[in-house]
Design a protein that fits this description.
The structure holds two protein chains of two kinds.
Chain A lengths: L3 E6 L11 E6 L2 E6 L3 H8 L8 E4 L2 E4 L2 H14 L3 E5 L5 H14 L2 E4 L6 H10 L2 E3 L1 H7 L2 E5 L3 H4 L3 H6 L15 E6 L4 H5 L2 E4 L5 H12 L9 E2 L2 E2 H13 L2 E6 L1 H4 L5 H14 L4 E6 L6 H12 L5 E2 L6 E2 L6 H6 L5 E5 L3 H4 L2 H9 L2 E4 L5 H5 L2 E3 L10 E4 L5 E4 L10 H17 L2
Parallel strand pairs in A: 6-7, 6-18, 9-10, 9-14, 10-11, 14-15, 18-19, 19-20
Antiparallel strand pairs in A: 1-2, 2-3, 4-5, 4-20, 7-16, 12-13, 16-17, 21-22
Helix pairs in contact in A: 2-18, 3-13, 3-18, 4-12, 9-10, 9-12
Chain B lengths: L1 E11 L4 E11 L2 E3 L7 E4 L4 E4 L1 E6 L4 H9 L1 H4 L21 H10 L2 E9 L4 H9 L5 E7 L4 H9 L2 H15 L3 E5 L3 H5 L18 H14 L6 E4 L9 H10 L12 E3 L7 E2 L7 E2 L1 H10 L3 E4 L7 E6 L2 H11 L4 E4 L7 E6 L5 H16 L6 E2 L13 H9 L1 H8 L5 H5 L11 H16 L16 E4 L12 H7 L5 E4 L2 E5 L2 E2 L7 E7 L1 H4 L2 H14 L18 E7 L2
Helix pairs in contact in B: 5-6, 5-8, 6-8, 6-19, 10-12, 13-14, 13-17
Classes of the chains: A alpha/beta, B alpha/beta.
């Protein structure tokens, strides 16, 4: 059978959501992937798939039918008093919408991977706003690009080439030559090595650096100490000069801001800086979202419930209060009596205390791939890979929704189908009570 | 299903029916002459029976509405309602979740809602939210005025290519009409700047006025159902009424392709300001109303301000930023490559602040000073002037001078000096109100065959309010208006009873109307336009052209309206 090339495939790996990928399909199987970065290629080629639904019995997994795994999951969720539905990042919006419906039905907490990632960005936005733009604005206009606390060379490998640095745009026809790139980080990352300027900052001093930049911007450089978080005052003054004098500046903020000391306060401070820079020139901020559709989870949850993550439906309406209603808040309080992990890997990312509680309660995993969460799960339901075996919507890190493509057929059920079946069964079970 | 509504006091301005006692019959999803042995008989018992409300300018779905929700959890908390047997959980006061939006409009008797600003690049988002906004029929106006393609064609004067582009974009975004928002100004905001109607757009040698005229001409060349729908330059600036009138004047010589206006100017309250700064800021509603009264090519909607803590959101990025510099609460902005932008801030309109009180007055003055209710539509530019849930109170203000006088006692005295409201005696009638909320907007949208009327063959969308018009004096009993217009006794949408006694009884999917401009006018210059567009995608967009158009999956309840001009 001849090889077929599928063009304009949307990569379901990171928040860049590159949509120019070429996938070579032979005999219904993917044989090669072109244009993607190594991370994206690896995902699209496929690896470590869970073969069949499994239920743990006496500590060992036993392969079961989808029917049995879905029935058992529905029973657990229908009976739970404080269920938590967590994840929702590496799958399409159509499944997220179904998830919210399930959460409402059983009065669950529903939370996304943002709560251990860019949730603090969201909280910062709720304090100070979100002065941003789409990535094409950066491509066409930006002459100053600042990567702060992020390392796209390794985490978003095509970000610079497609959107922000070497790419040529309408008003930046010479690409790299027309832009200046700063990297601010605690160590000299691969991205730092390809930047025009690397500014090394001491861990946990981002908030102070933003305050110093704002102070200098406001004309009070005289009160700034000689060094701030290991950065010389002269360098900070130089940065402010670069920011004020550019035509279009952008800060890409990463987890170096969101999950280090001061967390959402870092975001409030950098948003304030960007806000104030707009009195001088055009300046924007874009969070470097990780999973390809974690931004979509925030959007989907927001239009359906009013809030982007950490939502508690136990009162019948949506109650949002991160610090009280985020996954680790409720797990650390040992409130949760059943949990679903879908398209996210709490096993790899949650603190030990949370995992200890997860090990004690029924844990349902819905995911195409085995990962550390599988080791804790009681029921495992494998699904088709969204963006490779299922088409549907994903939101890029800048809020642009793109429909991912289905490239090959699959025997696996989709996330949406599994959720729909669980929901239908839960309704039957609860209706019978 | 057939329904007979008996003993209603009917207002249907499209048919010239002004409070007549008569029966209304429904068969399936349409009004019919009569039904024999109806499945359901509703005895209206002398209550007011009117067509379903038509909202022609609201911000309820899409990227910036959702950014507003995300930025303002404090607003979400104001509208909490637990899920019910038929209804999903609700949240929000000014930025409602999709379900709250749908249920609230339906309870208030509205059955058609148009999202007023859809950026093409994120059109998919608007349509996704439409699918989760049940009950009402919907459509979206697509932002086409700050697009590089449009600006280039306005500059070269190549209106055939512009027509081909508009046609392609309507198909790609599944849009109903052309929206213009601060033409040129939002592109300028890409560099942190703004422009007024005669300022050349930075780096493009063309003025906003030329962009507006080009789009208006193409709109008529393509024979689109709706006219251009414009948010003029200089929104919110003291003295902007001159720009507003200059915009109207620029379009005077364009011939409408059908029995409607050439331009619909939206949220005109925000564009009717005199003075030169916030100190001498004053109402120029009289100048705007005078123009509208003397000319027939312009219709407007109001954009009434009421006193509350609301959220402002618009594609007019520079305006939101300059408003933000006054309050400094929090500010979101989202510029969209090659196309448009948006800004969002919370705003608390206070009756004690002179400027806010004058804004409040202007919205009402426009409605009262424009003679013909067919030319003016009741909107709050939801949620910009205030949430749409203020409609009943606004209607009470328009119908009752006594209500206005009682409210005037509570607002800044600046209104006495620099607004006109206290000097106006007119009290609108039910017929005026029903025209401004049903028949008028339906005609302005080019939907008068199916919407805004109870006539035979129209969509069976209808509201019954617990008001007895024959024994009710709206000039005195304004409290009752505020109460009774919040909750219908019945709302019927497409022949289905969706509200009974103020409670949701069914949540069908609404339809999404979109226009497909076809014919020689749309296609003549298509190949040349596509060459230009392909270059835009290859060199400047960050999404490939193949992945750009909204797929059919996003409009499962879509209704294509094909226009064909040869």
């Amino acid at each position: 059978m001849a090889a077929e090339t599928v063009s304009n495939v949307v990569c379901p790996l990171c928040g860049c959501l590159c949509d120019d990928i070429e996938v070579i399909v032979e005999d219904g199987k993917i044989s090669n992937v072109k244009k993607a970065c190594p991370l994206g290629k690896n995902k699209i080629m496929g690896h470590d798939r869970i073969k069949a639904p499994m239920i743990r019995e006496n500590g060992e997994f036993k392969e079961v039918s989808y029917d049995d795994a879905i029935e058992k999951s529905a029973q657990i969720l229908a009976q739970a008093k404080r269920p938590l539905l967590y994840g929702w990042a590496s799958l399409i919006c159509e499944a997220q919408r179904k998830g919210v419906e399930l959460a409402e039905e059983i009065g669950a907490l529903i939370d996304t991977t943002a709560s251990v990632c860019h949730g603090s960005t969201v909280v910062g936005v709720q304090g100070r706003g979100a002065p941003g733009c789409t990535l094409g604005e950066v491509k066409n206009r930006a002459d100053l690009v600042i990567y702060w606390g992020c390392n796209p060379q390794e985490a978003h490998p095509r970000h610079r080439a497609r959107y922000a640095h070497s790419v040529k745009g309408m008003y930046r026809p010479n690409g790299k030559k027309d832009r200046k790139v700063f990297v601010i980080d605690v160590r000299e990352t691969k991205t730092a090595k390809v930047a025009d300027e690397f500014v090394k900052i001491d861990p946990g001093y981002d908030y102070m650096a933003f305050s110093a930049l704002r102070t200098i911007l406001a004309g009070h450089a005289d009160v700034v100490p000689d060094t701030v978080g290991g950065v010389a005052k002269e360098k900070l003054v130089e940065m402010v000069d670069a920011m004020k004098s550019c035509e279009f500046g952008v800060i890409f903020g990463g987890m170096g801001l969101t999950q280090t000391r001061c967390r959402y306060k870092n975001l409030e401070n950098v948003i304030s800086l960007v806000d104030e820079l707009n009195a001088h020139t055009k300046f924007t901020l874009i969070p470097m979202r990780g999973h390809y559709n974690v931004n979509g989870s925030g959007h989907t949850l927001a239009w359906l419930t009013g809030y982007p993550f950490a939502i508690d439906f136990s009162r019948g309406y949506a109650w949002y209060n991160p610090g009280e209603t985020a996954s680790n808040d409720v797990l650390l309080r040992r409130e949760v009596d059943a949990m679903m992990a879908i398209a996210g890997d709490p096993g790899a990312h949650f603190p030990g205390e949370s995992l200890r509680h997860m090990a004690k309660i029924p844990l349902i995993q819905i995911d195409p791939y085995a990962n550390p969460t599988t080791e804790l799960a009681d029921i495992v339901i494998p699904t088709a890979v969204s963006g490779v075996e299922v088409d549907g919507t994903a939101y890029r890190m800048d809020g642009v929704p793109i429909r991912t493509r289905k490239v090959v057929e699959t025997e696996y059920l989709t996330d949406e189908e599994v959720l729909e079946r669980i929901l239908t069964r839960v309704r039957e079970l609860k209706g019978g009570n | 299903m057939t329904i007979l509504i008996k003993n209603g006091v009917v207002f249907d301005p499209a048919q010239g029916i002004d409070g007549e006692k008569m029966d209304i019959a429904i068969d399936g999803d349409k009004f019919v002459e009569d039904v024999s042995s109806p499945d359901e008989v509703i005895d209206a018992g002398g209550r007011m029976v009117v067509p379903g409300g038509v909202e022609l300018h609201t911000h309820i779905s899409g990227g910036k509405v959702n950014a507003g929700r995300i930025m303002r959890p404090e607003d979400g908390r104001k509208g909490r309602i637990p899920r019910g047997k038929l209804t999903r959980a609700c949240s929000g006061f000014s930025v409602l979740n999709t379900f709250a939006t749908a249920y609230t409009y339906a309870r208030m008797g509205y059955t058609t809602t148009f999202e007023a600003a859809m950026p093409p690049l994120v059109a998919r988002h608007t349509h996704e939210e439409f699918e989760d906004t049940p009950i009402t029929d919907k459509g979206a106006l697509v932002l086409l005025d700050n697009n590089w393609m449009t600006i280039e064609y306005a500059k070269s004067g190549d209106l055939d290519k512009l027509a081909a582009y508009v046609s392609w974009m309507f198909n790609a975004s599944k849009a109903y009409g052309i929206k213009i928002v601060n033409p040129g100004g939002t592109e300028a905001w890409g560099w942190g700047k703004n422009c007024s109607i005669n300022d050349p757009v930075p780096r493009f040698d063309v003025t906003p006025k030329e962009i507006i005229k080009a789009l208006a001409q193409v709109n008529e060349d393509l024979g689109l159902p709706h006219s251009i729908h414009i948010h003029c330059n200089d929104l919110g600036h003291p003295g902007n009424f001159e720009t507003t009138i200059e915009t109207y004047e620029a379009l005077k010589d364009i011939k409408s392709s059908s029995d409607r206006q050439v331009v619909h100017a939206t949220h005109t309250q925000f564009h009717s300001y005199g003075g030169s700064n916030w100190g001498d800021f004053e109402s120029k509603a009289d100048a705007i109303a005078d123009y509208i009264n003397k000319n027939d090519h312009v219709t407007i909607d109001l954009g009434v301000v009421m006193f509350c803590d609301t959220t402002t959101m618009t594609a007019d990025g520079p305006m939101e930023y300059s408003l933000h510099t006054l309050s400094r609460r929090k500010w979101s902005n989202h510029d969209v490559e090659l196309e448009t932008g948006s800004g969002i801030i919370p705003v608390a309109y206070s009756p004690k602040i002179g400027v806010n009180a004058i804004q409040w007055a202007i919205g009402l003055e426009l409605a009262l000073l424009i003679d013909d209710p067919w030319k003016v539509v009741l909107t709050t530019d939801h949620p910009n002037g205030c949430p749409f849930t203020f409609y009943p109170e606004i209607i009470a203000l328009l119908m009752s001078k006594a209500k206005r006088e009682s409210m005037l006692e509570t607002v800044s005295k600046a209104v006495d000096k620099r607004a006109l409201i206290a000097t106006i005696d007119r009290e609108l009638t039910w017929s005026d109100i029903i025209t401004m909320t049903r028949a008028g907007p339906a005609k302005i949208l080019g939907m008068s065959d199916t919407k805004g009327s109870l006539k035979v063959g129209a969509d069976a969308d209808l509201a019954i309010y617990d008001i007895m018009p024959e024994s009710f004096d709206p000039t005195k009993d304004y409290k009752t208006i505020e109460d009774k217009l919040m909750r219908t006794v019945y709302t019927i949408k497409g022949g289905e009873i969706v509200v009974r006694d103020g409670e949701i009884t069914a949540t069908p999917h609404g339809r999404t109307f979109w226009v497909n401009p076809a014919g020689k006018k749309a296609e003549a210059a298509r190949d040349g336009m596509l060459e230009d567009l392909e270059r835009m995608f290859r060199d400047y967009y960050t999404v490939s052209m193949a992945n750009y158009p909204v797929q059919d999956e996003y409009i499962p309840h879509g209704v294509e309206i094909r226009t064909e001009v040869n």
